[in-house]
Design brief:
about 150 residues; about 60% helix; mainly alpha; 3 strands
Length: about 150
C-alpha cells in the first residue's frame, strides 16, 4: 500500500468528481450555486448589474456592507440573505470581515474562488436579462397553444 501526500489525495479526488453520480460532493455544490440568491449576491459583490446614470460606480469587485447588499437584493429576506452569505463563506466564495466600530461594521467580499465563479454566474445573469423577452414570448405562445387544446 503506497502512501499519498495530501496534494496527491486531493488530485485523485478531483479526478473522480462526477456530478451525475448520486452522492458526489460536486452535486451538492451545483445545488448551492444554482440558487438565485447566490447568483445575485455574486453579481452584487462583483459590481455587476444596472447602474443609475450620473452615479459613479466601481468597475470591479468590491466589499459591501450587509445593509447595502440587502438594499441591492430586493425581495431577499434577512433570513435568506444571512443563510446564503454564511453558506458562501463556508464554501470559501465570500469573506466576512467584522470591524469593531460603533455600531459594528460587517462587510462581505468575493474571494479569488468566488471571483472565478462570479465570471460564470455573470454570464448566466446577462443571458437571462438578454433573452427574457424571447422566453416570455415562448411562454405566452405555449400557454395560448395549450389553452386551444
Amino acid at each position: 500500500m503506497s502512501t499519498q501526500t495530501a496534494a496527491q489525495q486531493r488530485a485523485e479526488a478531483k479526478a473522480s468528481y462526477n456530478a451525475f453520480m448520486d452522492g458526489c460532493p460536486s452535486r451538492q455544490l451545483l445545488d448551492r450555486i444554482s440558487d438565485k440568491w447566490v447568483a445575485l449576491i455574486l453579481a452584487a459583490l462583483g459590481s455587476d448589474g444596472p447602474h443609475r446614470p450620473g452615479i459613479a460606480h466601481e468597475d470591479g469587485p468590491r466589499a459591501m456592507r450587509y445593509s447595502e447588499l440587502s438594499r441591492r437584493l430586493a425581495g431577499a429576506s434577512q433570513k435568506m440573505l444571512t443563510q446564503t452569505l454564511r453558506s458562501l463563506e463556508v464554501d470559501g466564495l465570500v469573506t466576512r470581515t467584522v470591524t469593531p466600530t460603533v455600531p459594528v461594521t460587517v462587510t462581505y467580499e468575493l474571494t479569488d474562488l468566488g471571483l472565478s465563479l462570479n465570471h460564470v454566474m455573470a454570464g448566466l445573469k446577462d443571458w437571462a436579462e438578454t433573452h427574457m423577452t424571447d422566453v416570455l414570448a415562448h411562454r405566452e405562445e405555449h400557454h395560448r397553444t395549450a389553452a386551444e387544446h
